[in-house]
C-alpha cells in the first residue's frame, strides 16, 4: 500500500478520508514500513467496510492487517443498531472465536531442557492436529446441545479442567445469547468428532519461554518472569464455525436487496442487527464462540495430561483466554455519549484497560492480558490493555504477526523438512503431520512481529509486558 494515499495523523496513525460511499473515515495503526508491506486490497477493504450502514467512528485496521474475506484480517468496526447497523459474517470470519489461551506452568527453561524431546513427543501424541483431525471425543445430540450452550463451562463439567480455569477466560467461559437451534445439522455433524483438536493452518500448541520482561508490575500480576515456561494454544471453532460462516454469508448475500443494503463487495454480505437474519446469525455465532471456548478447554486438559507424563511437577494454570474473531455487543463512549454497539473484531484482540469491570480482578490494576501469537520461529508477546485503547478503536489491538505472503507462495519458497531442520538447529522442536503445512507457516511467510507489536504500543493500543520465544511447536 502506498503511504502517499493516506493522511498521517500521528506517529503510527494514518487516515483514509471519507470519499464516495464511505460513511466514516478509515484509520490504520502502523508504521510506514508496515503500511508499505500491506496489500492494496487492504486499503480497498477498509474503504468498503466504512460504507456499511450504521458504522460508528471509523473503519479500523491493526498493524498486522492483511487481505481477508470482505473485511481485512486485522479489521475492527462497530455498528449501532439504532442507526440501522449491520452484522457481517465476513467481519467475524470463518473460524469463529479463533483465539489464544496461554497457560503458566511453574517451570523454567532449565527445568524442561533435558526433557524437551520427550515433552514434544508427548504433546504431539496427546494433541490431535492437522487437516480434518479428529479426537477421541464423540458428541451425541444432547452433548452437542450442551456444549454449544455452555462452552468451557460445559467442558469443565465433563471433567476437562477445573472451575478456577473459568475465571481467566473471556465471558467466564460461556458466551450468553447462543441460539443453538440456528446451528445447522451439517455444522453439528462436522464438529461431532472434532472437539479437542487443533485443526490446520496457523493453529498451534506452543511451549514458550519468557526472554524479556518490559513491564515488571504487570508481569507480576500475570505471574510471569524471565525464563518461565508458558504454553500457548491457538485454535478456534473448527468445522462448525466454518459451516456457520459459509451458510450465513450465502443467506446474507441473497437477502441484502430485501433489506435495502447495497454491497460494495459481495464478500461483505451482512444483515441488519435487528432483523430476523441478523439475530439468527448472532445466535449461531455465539454458539460457535462457545464451541471454540470448549475446544481450547479440552486442549488444555490434554496438554496437562501430557505434561504429567513427562514433568509431573508442572502446574498448568490458565493465564488468560481471549478470542480474535468475534462480534460482541459492548458498551462504549462515542463523542461523550454511552452507546451499545456491536463490535466486529476479525484478527483483532479485545484489549481492555486497567479498571475495566470485565478484566479479572487479579489483573484489574494491570489491564487485560492481550495475547499476540507470532510465527513458530520468531516470538510471541503478552501485552496489557491501555485506557486510551477504548478511545482509539473500541479497546482493540493486533492479534499476531500477520501474513506477509500467501500459503501457495510460501510452499514455492520453502520445503517443510528444511524448515523443521533449520528451526531445530536454533533449539526449536517442531512436530507436525504435514511438511506442506510447515512450509505454508514458515517464519518468513509472516510479518515482523516485533515491528507489529512496537506499532501497537506506539499507537496506544496496548503495552508490552513480556516477550516469548518458542521451544516446542505442535503444528496443525
Keywords:
eight-stranded mixed β-sheet; tRNA-splicing ligase RtcB; 33% helix; alpha+beta; seven-stranded mixed β-sheet; 15 helices; 476 residues
Write down how many β-strands occur, each being a DSSP E stretch of 2 or more residues: 19
Helix content: 25-40%
**Number of DSSP helices?**
15
Please tell me what the overall shape is. Answer: globular
Number of domains: 1
Q: Largest sheet, described in full? A: 8 strands, mixed
Q: Which ranges are low-confidence, i.e. pLDDT below 50, for 5 or more consecutive residues?
A: none
What proportion strand? 25-35%
* CATH level 1 class label: Alpha Beta
Please identify the structural class as seen in this structure. alpha+beta
Q: In CATH terms, what is the architecture?
A: Alpha-Beta Complex
Oligomer: single chain
Arithmetic mean of pLDDT: 95
CATH superfamily: tRNA-splicing ligase RtcB
| Cα end-to-end separation | 31 Å
Radius of gyration: 21 Å
Q: What is CATH's topology name?
A: tRNA-splicing ligase RtcB
Amino acid at each position: 500500500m502506498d503511504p502517499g494515499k493516506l493522511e498521517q495523523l500521528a506517529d503510527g496513525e494514518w487516515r483514509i478520508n471519507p470519499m464516495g460511499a464511505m460513511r466514516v473515515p478509515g484509520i490504520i495503526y502502523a508504521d510506514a514500513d508496515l503500511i508499505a508491506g500491506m496489500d492494496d486490497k487492504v486499503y480497498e477493504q477498509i474503504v468498503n467496510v466504512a460504507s456499511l450502514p450504521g458504522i460508528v467512528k471509523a473503519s479500523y485496521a491493526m498493524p498486522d492487517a492483511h487481505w481477508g474475506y470482505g473485511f481485512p484480517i486485522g479489521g475492527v468496526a462497530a455498528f449501532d443498531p439504532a442507526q440501522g447497523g449491520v452484522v457481517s459474517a465476513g467481519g467475524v470470519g470463518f473460524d469463529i472465536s479463533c483465539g489464544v489461551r496461554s497457560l503458566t506452568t511453574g517451570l523454567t527453561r532449565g527445568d524442561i531442557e533435558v526433557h524437551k524431546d520427550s515433552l514434544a513427543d508427548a504433546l504431539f501424541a496427546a494433541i490431535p492436529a492437522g487437516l480434518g483431525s479428529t479426537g477421541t471425543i464423540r458428541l451425541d445430540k444432547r452433548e452437542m446441545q450442551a456444549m454449544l450452550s455452555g462452552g468451557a463451562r460445559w467442558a469443565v463439567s465433563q471433567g476437562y479442567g477445573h472451575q478456577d480455569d473459568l475465571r481467566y477466560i473471556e465471558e467466564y467461559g460461556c458466551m450468553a445469547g447462543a441460539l443453538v437451534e440456528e446451528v445447522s445439522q451439517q455444522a453439528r455433524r462436522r464438529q461431532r468428532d472434532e472437539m479437542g483438536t487443533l485443526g490446520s493452518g496457523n493453529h498451534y500448541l506452543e511451549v514458550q519461554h519468557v526472554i524479556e520482561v518490559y513491564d515488571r508490575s504487570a508481569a507480576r500480576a500475570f505471574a510471569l518472569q524471565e525464563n518461565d515456561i508458558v504454553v500457548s494454544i491457538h485454535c478456534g471453532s473448527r468445522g462448525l464455525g466454518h459451516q456457520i460462516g459459509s451458510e450465513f454469508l450465502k443467506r446474507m448475500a441473497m437477502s441484502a436487496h430485501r433489506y435495502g443494503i447495497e454491497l460494495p463487495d459481495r464478500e461483505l454480505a451482512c444483515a441488519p442487527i435487528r432483523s430476523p437474519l441478523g439475530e439468527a446469525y448472532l445466535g449461531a455465532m455465539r454458539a460457535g464462540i462457545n464451541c471454540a471456548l470448549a475446544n481450547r478447554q479440552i486442549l488444555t486438559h490434554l496438554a496437562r495430561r501430557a505434561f504429567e507424563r513427562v514433568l509431573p511437577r508442572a502446574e498448568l494454570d490458565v493465564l488468560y483466554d481471549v478470542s480474535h474473531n468475534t462480534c460482541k455487543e459492548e458498551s462504549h463512549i462515542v463523542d461523550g455519549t454511552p452507546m451499545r454497539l456491536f463490535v466486529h473484531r476479525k484478527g483483532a484482540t479485545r484489549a481492555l484497560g486497567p479498571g475495566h469491570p470485565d478484566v479479572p480482578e487479579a489483573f484489574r490494576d494491570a489491564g487485560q492480558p492481550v495475547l499476540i501469537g507470532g510465527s513458530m520461529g520468531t516470538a510471541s508477546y503478552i501485552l496489557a490493555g491501555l485506557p486510551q485503547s477504548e478511545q482509539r478503536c473500541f479497546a482493540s489491538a493486533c492479534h499476531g504477526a500477520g501474513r506477509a505472503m500467501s500459503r501457495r507462495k510460501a510452499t514455492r519458497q520453502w520445503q517443510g523438512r528444511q524448515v523443521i531442520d533449520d528451526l531445530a538447529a536454533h533449539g526449536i522442536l517442531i512436530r507436525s503431520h504435514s511438511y506442506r503445512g510447515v512450509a505454508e507457516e514458515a517464519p518468513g511467510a509472516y510479518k515482523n512481529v516485533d515491528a507489529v507489536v512496537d506499532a501497537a504500543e506506539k499507537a496506544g493500543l496496548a503495552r508490552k509486558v513480556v516477550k516469548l520465544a518458542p521451544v516446542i511447536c505442535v503444528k496443525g
